[in-house]
Specification:
The chain is about 35% helix and about 25% strand. It has about 425 residues and is an alpha/beta fold. It has three domains: about 150 residues, NAD(P)-binding Rossmann-like Domain (Rossmann fold, 3-Layer(aba) Sandwich), CATH 3.40.50; about 160 residues, Dihydrodipicolinate Reductase, domain 2, CATH 3.30.360; about 80 residues, 2-Layer Sandwich (Alpha-Beta Plaits). Strands 7, 8, 9, 10, 11, 12 and 13 form a seven-stranded mixed β-sheet that branches. A hairpin with a 2-residue loop joins strand 9 and strand 10. Helix 1 crosses helix 12, helix 4 packs parallel to helix 5 and helix 5 packs parallel to helix 10. The relative contact order is 0.13. The structure holds NADP nicotinamide-adenine-dinucleotide phosphate and L-homoserine. The site of NADP nicotinamide-adenine-dinucleotide phosphate has 27 residues, from helix 1. The site of L-homoserine (HSE) has 11 residues, from helix 7.
C-alpha cells in the first residue's frame, strides 16, 4: 500500500529525513508492507538551496496543501518553535493524520494538549527525536523501563553547548567562535540563545522527567542557568581541581519530591559524563529495579536526528498495519512537589572579583560561617588594579543556601561581583 507523507519544514532535520527515507525505502517496505513517500514539503522560501535533490513541484508555502489533503496520512513536523507548528500539528491530528515531530519546545510546553488531541483522534503522536537526537530515550522511558520507579536522570542533553564547552576545553576556542562552528554544523536552534541559556536542555529535561518520573512537570519548575558566565579562566581553574565543565541536566525523584536543574557543572574528569564531547549527548538513568543505565550518542545534526524521526515513521506505519494506532495514551499523571531547597547538597564553585585589600578574606569567611557554609578551598587567582579574582570551592551545601550566600555576598562592599557559580557533580556511587 502506498502511504503519502507531508513534511512541514525542510531545514537541517527535514532535509535529513528526506535523504534517509529515500535510502531506507526498500527496507521500510519490507518491514511494514507499506511504501511510504514524502509527497509534499512545506517551506517559507521556495528558492532556497537545500543541499538535497528535491523535485521543485513537491515544495509549497501553503500548509493546506498538506493539512487538508485527505491522501496524506502522516505529517512530519520539523519547523520548530511554538507557532505555527502547534496549530499545524493540532489540525493534522484532528484530521486523523499521524504526526511525528522533533519539536521539544512544543512537547515541553503543550505536550498534554497535543497528546490528548491525538488520543481523542485515535492517531499516533511520536517525538523520539525531540530529546537526544539519535539516542533512543523517549521509547525506553515510556515502554522498556515502565516497571521501574525512576529516581535519577542526569545527563548532557544539549549538543550545541557541549560542542562549545568541548572546544573551549580542548582547543582554547573562545565562546563565540565555538558557537559559530556549532551553528554551521546544524546543531544549534534557529535562535541559539535557547541552547546557550540552558532553555533547550530545560525543555528536554521537562519531557524526560514527565515520562521518567510519571509526573506532571512544568518547565517553570526547572532551575535553569546557561553557559554565558563560563570563561576560559573557569575552564582552567576547573581543570586545576580535576574537573571539566559540562552543562548538566539533573532530575531526581526522592519519594515523590522532585528536584530539576540545568546548570553548568564541574564534573570530575573520572566521571562517565566527563568524556562525552562535541555534539554527543549522554543520559544516565537510575531505576529502582533496573539499576544504572547509560545512553550515549549523537544528540544533534541532520542524519542523527533523522534516524529517530524515520524510526518513528516506521512505528506509525507498523501501527497502521496492525490497526493499533494511538495505543500509547497518557493516563493519570500525578503532580509531584518540587523540593524548595533545590535538591541534594553539593559542593559549589564560586568565582568572584573582590577589592584587593587586607581583611577581605576574613569578611568572606565570616559571612560563610554565619550562613553555615563551610569552605573547602579558597584561592586568590590573580590581582590587578586593586581587584583580586577569588575562587572558592565549598563543602556540600544545599543549593538554597548557596543562593542565600551569593545574595549576601552581592551586598558586601568589598565584593565587586560574583562572576560564576556552579555546582560540582559528585562521582556516581
Ligand atoms: P531549521 O534548519 O531552522 O529548519 C526549519 C525549517 O522550517 C526550514 O525549512 C524553514 O523553511 C521551515 N519553516 C520555518 N518556519 C516556517 C513557517 N512559518 N512556515 C513554513 N515553514 C517554516 O531547523 P532544524 O534544525 O531542522 O530543526 C527543526 C526542529 O527539529 C526543531 O524543532 C528543532 O528543535 C528540532 N531538532 C533539531 C535538531 C538539530 O540537530 N538541528 C536535533 C533535534 C531536534 P525555509 O527553509 O524555507 O526557511
Ligand atoms: N539545538 C539542539 C542541541 C538540537 O544543540 O542539542 C538537538 O535537540
Amino acid at each position: 500500500m502506498d502511504i503519502r507523507i507531508g513534511l512541514l519544514g525542510c531545514g537541517t532535520v527535514g532535509a535529513g529525513v528526506i535523504d534517509l527515507m529515500r535510502k531506507r525505502s526498500n527496507k521500510i517496505s519490507d518491514m511494514t508492507g507499506m511504501r511510504p513517500s514524502i509527497t509534499r514539503v512545506l517551506v517559507r522560501d521556495l528558492t532556497k538551496e537545500r543541499g538535497i535533490d528535491l523535485d521543485g513541484a513537491m515544495l509549497t508555502t501553503n500548509p493546506d496543501d498538506i493539512l487538508s489533503d485527505p491522501d496524506i496520512r502522516i505529517v512530519i513536523e520539523t519547523i520548530g518553535g511554538i507557532e505555527p507548528a502547534r496549530s499545524y500539528i493540532l489540525t493534522a491530528l484532528k484530521a486523523g493524520k499521524h504526526v511525528i515531530t522533533a519539536n521539544k519546545d512544543l512537547i515541553a510546553l503543550h505536550g498534554s494538549e497535543i497528546i490528548e488531541t491525538a488520543d481523542a483522534a485515535g492517531v499516533d503522536i511520536l517525538y523520539e527525536a525531540a530529546v537526544g537526537g539519535a539516542i533512543p530515550l523517549i521509547r525506553p522511558l515510556k515502554e522498556s523501563l515502565t516497571a521501574n520507579d525512576i529516581t535519577d536522570l542526569l545527563g548532557i542533553i544539549n549538543g550545541t553547548t557541549n560542542y562549545i564547552l568541548t572546544q573551549m576545553t580542548e582547543t582554547g576556542a573562545d565562546f563565540s567562535e565555538a558557537l559559530k562552528e556549532a551553528q554551521d554544523l546544524g546543531y544549534a536552534e534557529a535562535d541559539p540563545t535557547s541552547d546557550v541559556d540552558g532553555l533547550d536542555a530545560a525543555r528536554k529535561l521537562t519531557i524526560l522527567a514527565t515520562i521518567g518520573f510519571h509526573a506532571k512537570v512544568n518547565l517553570s519548575e526547572v532551575e535553569v542557568s546557561g553557559i554565558r558566565s563560563v570563561t576560559a579562566a573557569d575552564v582552567k581553574y576547573a581543570s586545576e581541581i580535576g574537573c571539566v565543565i559540562k552543562l548538566l541536566a539533573s532530575g531526581t525523584d526522592r519519594n515523590g519530591i522532585l528536584s530539576l536543574r540545568v546548570s553548568p557543572t564541574l564534573v570530575p574528569k573520572q566521571h562517565p559524563l566527563a568524556g562525552v564531547s562535541g555534539s554527543y549527548n549522554a543520559l544516565f538513568v537510575r531505576g529502582d529495579a533496573s539499576g544504572d543505565l547509560m545512553f550515549f550518542g549523537r544528540g544533534a545534526g541532520s542524519l542523527p536526528t533523522a534516524s529517530s524521526v524515520v524510526g518513528d515513521v516506521i512505528e506509525a506505519l507498523r501501527n497502521m498495519r496492525l490497526n493499533v494506532s494511538g495505543r500509547v495514551s497518557q493516563m493519570v499523571m500525578p503532580h509531584k512537589t518540587v523540593d524548595p531547597d533545590g535538591g541534594s547538597a553539593l559542593r559549589h564553585y564560586l568565582r568572584m572579583s573582590v577589592v584587593d585589600q587586607p581583611g577581605v578574606f576574613a569578611k568572606i569567611a565570616g559571612l560563610c560561617g554565619d550562613e553555615g557554609l563551610s569552605m573547602e578551598t579558597v584561592l586568590q587567582k590573580r590581582a590587578s588594579k586593586g581587584t583580586a579574582e577569588v575562587v572558592i570551592v565549598t563543602h556540600e551545601v544545599k543549593p538554597e543556601v548557596i543562593r542565600r550566600v551569593v545574595e549576601a555576598f552581592r551586598q558586601m562592599p568589598s565584593i565587586k561581583s560574583i562572576d560564576c557559580v556552579m555546582p560540582v557533580q559528585p562521582m556516581t556511587e
